[in-house]
Design brief:
- By secondary structure, the protein is of the alpha+beta class.
- Helix content is about 25%, strand content about 25%.
- The chain has one helix and four strands.
- The strands form two sheets. A two-stranded antiparallel ribbon has the order 1-2.
- Strand 1 and strand 2 form a beta hairpin.
- It is elongated, with a radius of gyration of 15 Å.
Length: about 60
């Protein structure tokens, strides 16, 4: 299987250079894994839409308490 780096959008031809950095769930299936080159693994940032949604959920829960 061929992986693409989330950070630079380049293919990762060497399987030993591919690092699993996240998993995104899917609405109609199991989702997919997010990969990066070993040197880019620490540079991948979380999906901003997911961060906004999580922030809203946490704020609503905090206001209810």
């Amino acid at each position: 299987m061929r992986h693409v780096c989330r950070y630079c959008d380049e293919p990762i031809p060497d399987p030993d250079d591919a690092v699993l950095v996240a998993h995104e769930g899917g609405n109609s299936g199991p989702g997919w894994n997010i990969w990066a080159h070993r040197v880019h693994a620490d540079l991948v940032e979380p999906d901003p839409a997911a961060v906004r949604i999580l922030t809203r959920v946490l704020l609503v829960q905090a206001m209810r308490s």
